[in-house]
From TrEMBL:
Entry annotated with the keyword GTP-binding: yes
Record lineage: Eukaryota, Metazoa, Chordata, Craniata, Vertebrata
CDD domains: trmE, TrmE_N
Recorded catalytic activity of this chain's protein: GTP + H2O = GDP + phosphate + H(+)
InterPro entries per UniProt: G_TrmE, GTP-bd, GTP-bd_TrmE_N, GTPase_MnmE, MnmE_dom2, MnmE_helical, P-loop_NTPase, Small_GTP-bd
Role description: GTPase component of the GTPBP3-MTO1 complex that catalyzes the 5-taurinomethyluridine (taum(5)U) modification at the 34th wobble position (U34) of mitochondrial tRNAs (mt-tRNAs), which plays a role in mt-tRNA decoding and mitochondrial translation. Taum(5)U formation on mammalian mt-tRNA requires the presence of both GTPBP3-mediated GTPase activity and MTO1 catalytic activity.
Designated name of the protein: 5-taurinomethyluridine-[tRNA] synthase subunit GTPB3, mitochondrial
A single GO cellular-component term on record: mitochondrion
């Protein structure tokens, strides 16, 4: 009521009509970053977007769809100017959410933004204009069929992407490549199922050839292979999305913490000449040639007597077991130069099924006579993993180490633009695993009971549908949109 009075006091009759119009649920939020900035973007979505734009610009006519227009933004109650900025009108369904949307590009001062939010909140006195929940714009876009779940996940990843390779992978997924791949598989299954059902229904009338059945078998088999190999990608999409977990490991005092500090270019870990300095795991996030690396410095591995150091060593071993990549550090001056002996020294350090490893022979500056033999051993490689001499003191060998790291990361994460798109979440691999299992069951059922075999195909298709959200999306929506920011 207060608003109705306020609006009628403020003037135009169309504003009053807005109040009586049946508004559905309209959301608004700041979609740009928070805090002081050059430009802040506030957007709305829902049937109230039109009225909100009219109220704030004080004009009944809207700018042409999807064209920026310069407008004075005013408080609808007092008509006091709040800012002069650009507004855009996106009538549904040609908008991000598929609903009527409006955008206000304002000067990014906190008082401007809060003034306009208050004005919109005032419009919240009308039925149904309210602040958006995190991810609610994207959620609405999903509900209106503007994107599938994998694209929504890609969008979330794109906003969070910190390195180029992550951005490439996320953009590809947001543009629907992964979703289209799963959709294609789902359609293949639909077709195979239709043929199988036709065979079941009509084979007795002799209208359907035996070949139909073998064709269905071949299709299902080929699909099982294709999904199987998509699954066996070494988790490269997941690694790229979450960052490759690399662990710096080695005996005490070889310069592990010095290496961490050198790579992150700040004194993140304590360095001292005392063996057993590091106990807690120290973690930093790095961008190496566009790939994300989560690097952990750990306690020196030895049979410690001090209980606190023992705990540190146990944590170090835990980290080693979970690592995607190990940077094994040894003291260059204290290792045998002969490759086989060097390999044995390394082997005694790492767990049996160790992940890929880079051997770092640190303190190269202390090598007598330049360490020619060791240098040759590193260059030859065999039977060592990729290895480099390094001096954390002088920086010698750092470029080589970075190149080795970049190569390993590229191998682990793959090229996000090459080949078919990678699955990026354990959610995907879980459903794909179930899908493949159902296809394998088809193979067995098929000889005994065609009806049951058909049921397996339906089940396999349901698992694919769960990934894209065409089936049973409700249970996962909260999880997927939980990490989205407000305004997206
Ligand atoms: N000469 C030389 N000294 C180094 C180099 N890197 C590290 N140091 C020294 O070696 C000592 C141990 O370095 P840290 O980085 O603490 O070694 P750490 O492996 O983390 O040691 P713990 O945490 O105790 O296992 C310190 O005195 C460093 O200054 C290097 O490349 N050359
Ligand atoms: K130390
Ligand atoms: Mg240390």
């Amino acid at each position: 009521m207060a608003l109705r009075r306020a609006l009628s006091a403020a003037g135009p009759r169309w504003a009053q009509r807005l109040c009586s119009a049946a508004w559905g649920d309209t959301i608004f939020a700041v979609s740009s970053g928070h805090g002081r900035c050059g430009v802040a973007v506030i957007r709305t979505s829902g049937p109230g977007s039109r009225g909100a734009l009219q109220s704030l610009t004080g004009r009944p006519e809207l700018p042409p769809p999807r064209v920026l227009a310069l407008r004075r933004i005013r408080d609808p109650t007092t008509a006091e100017p709040l800012d002069r900025g650009l507004v855009v009108w996106f009538p549904g369904p040609q908008s991000f959410t598929g609903e009527d949307c409006a955008e206000l590009h304002l000067h990014g001062g906190p008082a401007v933004v809060s003034g306009v939010l208050r004005a919109l909140g005032l419009a919240g006195g009308l039925p149904g204009l309210r602040p958006a929940e995190p991810g609610e714009f994207t959620r609405r876009a999903f509900r209106r069929g503007k994107l599938d779940l994998t694209a929504a996940e890609g969008l979330g990843d794109l906003i969070r992407a910190e390195t180029e390779a992550q951005r490439r992978q996320a953009l590809r997924q947001m543009e629907g490549e992964l979703g289209r791949l799963y959709q294609r598989w789902s359609e293949t299954l639909t077709q195979a199922l239709a043929h199988l059902e036709a065979y079941i229904d009509f084979s007795e009338d002799d209208n359907v050839e035996e070949e139909v059945l073998s064709q269905v078998d071949a299709t299902v088999w080929a699909l099982e292979q294709e999904i199987g190999s998509h699954l066996q990608d070494g988790r490269r999409g997941e690694l790229l999305r979450g960052g490759v977990r690399a662990v710096i490991a080695g005996p005490p005092n070889v310069g592990k913490s010095s290496l961490l500090n050198l790579l992150c270019q700040r004194p993140a870990a304590i360095v001292s000449p005392v063996a057993g300095t590091t106990r807690d795991v120290v973690e930093v996030a790095l961008n190496i040639s566009g790939y994300p690396l989560v690097l952990s410095d750990t306690a020196g591995l030895r049979d410690a007597t001090d209980p606190v150091e023992q705990e540190g060593v146990s944590r170090a071993r835990d980290r080693l077991r979970q690592a995607d990549l190990v940077l094994a550090v040894l003291d260059a001056a204290a290792v045998p130069a002969e490759p086989a002996a060097l390999g044995a020294a390394l082997g005694s350090l790492l767990p049996p099924a160790a992940p890929p490893c880079i051997l770092v022979l640190n303190k190269a500056d202390l090598l007598q006579g330049g360490g020619g033999t060791l240098r040759d051993a590193c260059a030859r490689g065999d039977p060592l993993p990729p290895a480099t001499l390094l001096s954390c003191r002088t920086g010698e060998g750092l470029d080589h180490l970075l190149a080795l790291l970049a190569r390993q990361l590229a191998q682990l994460c793959g090229d996000p633009l090459a080949g078919s798109p990678s699955l990026t979440q354990s959610r995907h691999s879980l459903h794909l695993g179930d899908c493949v299992a159902a296809l394998a069951r088809y193979d067995r059922e098929r000889r005994r009971d065609l009806g049951l075999a058909a049921e397996r195909l339906r089940l396999a298709r349901r698992h694919l549908g769960r990934i894209t959200g065409h089936v049973g999306a409700e249970d996962v929506l909260d999880i997927i949109f939980r990490d989205f920011c407000v305004g997206k």
